[in-house]
Amino acid sequence: MDISHWVFVVSVLLLFLASGSFSIDSFHQPFPIVEPDPGHTKLRLSREGLEAISRINTPIAAVAVIGPYRSGKSFLLNQLLSLSCYEGFGVGHMRDTKTKGIWVWGTPLELNIDGVRTSVFYLDTEGFESVGKSNVYDDRIFALATVMSSVLIYNLPETVREADISRLSFAVELAEEFYGRFGQDVAFEPAKLLWLIQRDFLEGKTVKEMVDEALRHVPNTGGDKNIDQVNQIRDSLAVMGDNSTAFSLPQPHLMRTKLCDLKDDDLDPMYVKKREQLKELVASIIRPKIVQGKSLNGKEFVSFLEKILEALNKGEIPSTGSLVEVFNKGIVERCLKLYNRRMGKLRLPMPEQSLQDVHDRSREEAMKAFDELHFGRRHAKSSFEQLDEDIKEVNKNIIMANEYHSARLCEALYTQCEDNVDQLQVLRLPSMAKFNAGFLQCNRSFEQECIGPSRANYEQRMVKMMGKSRSLFIKEYNQRLFNWLVTFSLIMVMVGRFIIKFILIEMAAWVLFIFLETYTRMFWSSESLYYNPVWHFIVSTWETIVYNPILDLDRWAIPIGCTVALWMLYWRCYGRRKHKSRWLLPMYNSHKSGSNRPRSD
Questions:
Q1: What pLDDT is recorded for position 90?
Q2: Would you identify the CATH topology of the domain 25-220+228-315?
Q3: Mind telling me which Gene3D superfamilies this protein's record contains (predicted)?
Q4: Residue range(s) occupied by CATH 1.20.58 in the chain
């Protein structure tokens, strides 16, 4: 049992080591990276092929071959890679297409491009117009190959047809949306378009002349929309002339079904020569894949591919608009951060109009930055609208925050004013002037400090509170002043008679007391007194004494009262003896005046 157990363990280890060595050697074969879904309408990633790419740490470039099915794309790639049909891409001799989706050769070619060591992958794509596929699926294959490749070889047998030009509509849209932004970080650099015409005779024309002739305007006297569309593509391809080239390749051999079994010595010498020239041409025009100003390594290329495929599968048909949204997503986020940074500097709360002005300026700045940085000309509208919606959402939150801070500030000021008014209601010495001064100061402080959207609401509350408090103060003011004056007159009677013994003070106090008491007895109530001119004079005098710019008697009443009491005590004990001769006003004399007078008789 022990021996069999160890044999089993050793076998498992050997299988594991064998599988590891197989996984390293297996990179020398083609892998699918994009496959069709069961409905053959959309594309999905194949992890097997992505692992072959993601392991590369150097900058990556891709050469993709596109064209009709059974046009020799797989054989051409094997020739460019110097591989036989039995070790390279599978070559189909049957009626149906051999390659499904997009395949990659697992071992890249290492080239030195402008001093940078670059890994060049070769991609084989599923042919157009094969049986059992939709045109939308072909469009997705073409679109994906256009975006992910650095060199796009358009493999065409014999000649350039109208349908072949129409296939380039996606490349044209990409050119119109992304290319031509020189001096800025483009979303991705355009693939070099290589027209490859496999034809033995060009009837005295160069392949470049043949392509240029195919791209000339076609007369459209009947107003056919399809012809107009193809003519627009022709015009755009002419603009892309600096980014495209043409090359002719003769047939390698008349026996096309036997090509995989033939060596270079068996092939047409002209074909072998032109094939080597084609290799040199591809090597001379290829560049590392650049996305937003940065070359991609394996993992970054896979991440880029995932985003592109998600965008192309987004709708019923692949569109450049979806790609524009992908590349503009980061720019939208960047512009939104710019808006947030500007609005984040605000000190809330602030007036609504001021906030709106800052919002308008910040939004204008963010939109200006988007206009300068965004990708896409016709299809950037959705990204623009997305940025506008995001800005509106952020602004909505800022408005809510401004309302909250405004409500807190105004509530605090309102409460403070309410407390101050309550204190004014219970003044020790009632004073209308002091109440009005405190009222105005509170109102002025509220108007200066309460800002924001809550101001109008709290202003209404302030008006109601102030009006109610003022009415209550006025209602109690006369009664409190009357009671205080009655008490004051009695106190002054006592002070004038027994403390300082100043007869004029006592007389004035008696006059005030008699007036207050007899008037209210004669006219039924004290309210009638409040309309008497004498009362108005008394009130004016009281207000002048109690509260004026020099003295607030309500605040200093206790210190002044203590000082006066001490002064009177001093005067009562010492002052009257020292300064008796200086008093000009009559005072009480406590000595018996009759005992000192001489007798008359």
A1: 76
A2: Rossmann fold (3.40.50)
A3: Guanylate-binding protein, C-terminal domain, P-loop containing nucleotide triphosphate hydrolases
A4: 325-413
Structure confidence by residue, pLDDT tens digits, 137-180: 777 788 788 888 899 999 888 778 777 777 776 666 665 565 54
DSSP 243-259: GEEEEEE--S-S-GGGG
Residue intervals in the chain for CATH 3.40.50.300: 25-220+228-315
- Integer Cα distance of 306 and 469 in angstroms: 71
Our CA dihedral for 486, 487, 489, 493, rounded to 10 degrees, sits at 140
Q: How far apart are CA 203 and CA 187, in angstroms?
A: 41
Tokens read off for 272: 């072998």
Residues in contact with 84: Cβ distance below 8 Å, sequence separation at least 6, in sequence order: 78, 260
Phi, psi of 120 (to 5 degrees): -105, 120
- Please give the model's pTM, rounded to 2 decimal places: 0.57
CA-CA distance, 323 to 311, in Å (whole number)?
A: 6
Report whether the peptide linkage leading into residue 349 is cis, meaning its omega lies within 30 degrees of zero.
yes
Show the tokens assigned to 502.
Answer: 């100043």
- The rounded Cα 218 to chain-centroid distance in angstroms is 48
pLDDT recorded at residue 342: 92
For the chain, helix (H) and strand (E) counts, in that order, are: 19, 11
Three-state SS for 375-435 is CCCCCCHHHHHHHHHHHHHHHHHHHHHHHHHHHHHHHHHHHHHHHHHHHHHCCCCCCHHHH
CATH of domain 325-413: 1.20.58
β strands within 179-288, DSSP E: 192-198, 244-249
Secondary structure of 461-491 in HEC code, one letter for each residue = HHHHHHHHHHHHHHHHHHHHHHHHHHHHHHH
Average pLDDT, the chain: 77
Least confident of 127-131, 261-265, 290-294: 127-131
pLDDT more than 90, % of the chain: 20
